[in-house]
Amino acid sequence: MGGELEGDVRAQGAVHLESGARVRGDIQGESVAIDDGAELDGRLLVEFELPPELDGTSGRRR
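The structure corresponding to this sequence follows.
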């Protein structure tokens, strides 16, 4: 994505902000790449799963 955008971005895949891009709003996607020179005034919302050894629930007994 290049240029300027005011508003939220929701993607089912990857979001890529190119150098010179300006976004005012939240970005939600499976992955987000922001090049040097791009600007974001908002929040990044990225969902991911932690591996079992980092998830904090492994080893707990119920």
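The mean pLDDT is 88.
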